[in-house]
Write a structure and sequence with these properties.
Structural class: mainly alpha
Number of strands: 0
Order of helices and strands: HHHHHHHHHHHHHH
Low-confidence stretches: 1-5, 106-113
Strand content: under 5%
Distance between the termini: 65 Å
Largest sheet: none
Number of helices: 14
Helix content: over 70%
Radius of gyration: 23 Å
Length: 322
């Protein structure tokens, strides 16, 4: 056995990361991991070696958390990650363009344009990375999109922290962190980057942003109700048809289909944070609001269940087999 397979030539950082793997997995695959790592990093640039370190760490983490491609949780994450990314990009676009126009055309009178420009730059820094991540994902390069989405989560979280934290904004920060975690941990090989999956991500993002922007302008002029308060309900409503389509498709993995619906969870995090800090009398309306957010997804599950039941009844009907 040579030094490559025993790990003697593996740098200390690589050996430490390999040590993160479960003991049983290391005993069975340890030599192969060392050999593969040595082959992948030999003569490569520093950035390429760092990517191998990252792959070692994420693979070990998936095995520890049992979220690999063959695990049920991994299949759920593979469905949730592209949905969460598409919704995050749609929300970013919804906040970006109207916000930029408003800050430039109507800056705060006490601060003037000198404050509006840095504020607009911060808003752009918060939204643009999500749009970039979605654009990369729509081209089918999920691994690159994953890196961009994690960077977007970090940047948007930093901007949120600069603006100050209260229960609702802390919940928003937690929601963006959850989007980043979903995208990072989802097994890349299971994420749907077929033409259907890419169109679904792009369509979902545009369906979030464009109608919400129009509704926001209408409500600002005619109703004392901001679109921002209805946004989580709108996200659940938009995701429900995608969930129904996945569940009703005979060839789709049901766990990945359920993950599509779970991709809306990050937008319930602000409600969770508010519920944790608000007095008990306000818990009931918060729970009712959360119910309204998930009700479309529940209806999609019910319809999909009815469709599957009808298919089974039809398949077992002797008259149809005659």
């Amino acid at each position: 056995m040579n030094d490559v397979t025993t790990g003697h030539d593996t740098p200390r950082a690589g050996r430490l990361l390999i040590g993160l793997y479960p003991a049983r997995y290391r005993s069975a695959q340890g030599d192969d991991i060392h050999a593969t790592f040595a082959e992948a990093t030999q003569g490569r640039t520093r950035s390429a070696v760092l990517r191998e370190y990252r792959d070692l760490a994420t693979h070990a983490l998936r095995l520890r958390l049992r979220i690999g491609p063959t695990d049920p949780a991994g299949r759920v994450l593979a469905g949730a990650a592209p949905t969460a990314l598409a919704l995050a990009a749609g929300c970013a676009l919804y906040f970006l363009l109207p916000g930029l126009v408003h800050r430039i055309r109507a800056p705060r009178p006490d601060l003037g344009l000198g404050h509006a420009v840095p504020a607009a730059v911060l808003q752009l820094a918060r939204a643009a990375p999500w749009l970039l991540a979605l654009g990369i994902a729509v081209t089918g390069r999920w691994r690159a999109a994953r890196i961009a989405a994690v960077a977007a989560a970090l940047l948007s979280g930093g901007v949120q922290a600069l603006n100050g934290l209260h229960p609702y904004s802390a919940g928003q920060l937690a929601g963006m962190a959850l989007v980043g975690a979903l995208v990072l941990l989802a097994p890349a090989g299971l994420v749907d980057v077929t033409q259907r999956g890419r169109w679904e991500m792009a369509g979902l993002a545009l369906a979030v942003a464009l109608p919400a922007t129009v509704a926001d302008r209408y409500m600002a002029q005619h109703l004392p109700l901001p679109m921002l308060g209805l946004l989580p309900i709108w996200l659940g409503t938009l995701t429900a048809p995608a969930l129904l389509g996945r569940l009703a498709d005979r060839r789709r993995d049901p766990l990945q289909a359920v993950g599509v619906g779970l991709g809306t969870l990050p937008w319930l995090m602000p409600l969770t944070a508010v519920a944790a800090f608000d007095p008990p009398p306000r818990l009931r309306p918060l729970l009712e609001y959360a119910g309204a957010c998930v009700a479309p997804l529940g209806m999609a599950l019910a319809v999909a269940g009815a469709v599957q039941l009808a298919r089974r009844v039809r398949a077992s009907d002797p008259s149809d087999l005659a």
